[in-house]
Amino acid sequence: MSVTEVSKHATVACPFCATLNRVDLGRIADRPKCGQCARPILLDRPIAVTDATLDGVLAGTDVPVVMDCYADWCGPCKIMAPILDDFAHDRQGEVLVTKLDTDRNPATARRFDVRAIPTLLVFRNGREVGRQAGVIPREGLDRLSGVPEKA
């Protein structure tokens, strides 16, 4: 990274112990680990968020956050899952992809008025800037996130 580049960070809840960790997205190749339990934090896939962790993630993340509001029993959510996995893998360091289980986190679903699943919400600087209900193709996810396409 050159001196003129500004480092981007994301706050991510450890999938093992739920500790919030601030991760330098410019150093993803160094394989970040949780500061509490030392297990890996993998940003090449969607990261789970909860009622308890979402505000910390949104407040501490410099890149767009795409949140998939889903439920385990939802057929369209299962269709959307591999599209989000692919997107998270291709866009790691540029976008933080998160997943919110609406059955286990009803307060957040109510807070953002999620009335259908899957619903994708996009946040920048902690504020909602985009929303899409239903399954969308990968190209639609790229557009919704607002991140320029890779060359």
Describe the structure.
The structure is a single chain. Helices cover 24% and strands 25% of the residues. By secondary structure, the protein is α/β, with parallel strands linked by helices. The protein has a domain at 44-145: 3-Layer(aba) Sandwich (Glutaredoxin). The chain has a five-stranded mixed sheet with strand order 3-5-4-6-7.
In short, what is this structure?
By secondary structure, this protein is α/β, with parallel strands linked by helices.
The CATH superfamily of the domain at 44-145 bears the name Glutaredoxin
SSE string, helices as H and strands as E: EEEHEHEHEEH
Poorly predicted regions are none
Radius of gyration over alpha carbons? 15 Å
Main sheet properties: 5 strands, mixed
CATH architecture of the domain at 44-145: 3-Layer(aba) Sandwich
Indicate the CATH topology of the domain at 44-145: Glutaredoxin
Beta-strand residue fraction: 25-35%
Number of strands: 7
| Count of discrete alpha- or pi-helical segments spanning 4 or more residues | 4
Taking the alpha carbons of the first and last residues, their distance comes to 19 Å
Largest beta sheet: strand ordering: 3-5-4-6-7
Q: Could you tell me the mean pLDDT?
A: 91
CATH hierarchy, class of the domain at 44-145: Alpha Beta
Gross geometry: globular
Percentage of residues assigned to helices: 10-25%
Counting helices, strands and paired strands, the structural category is alpha/beta
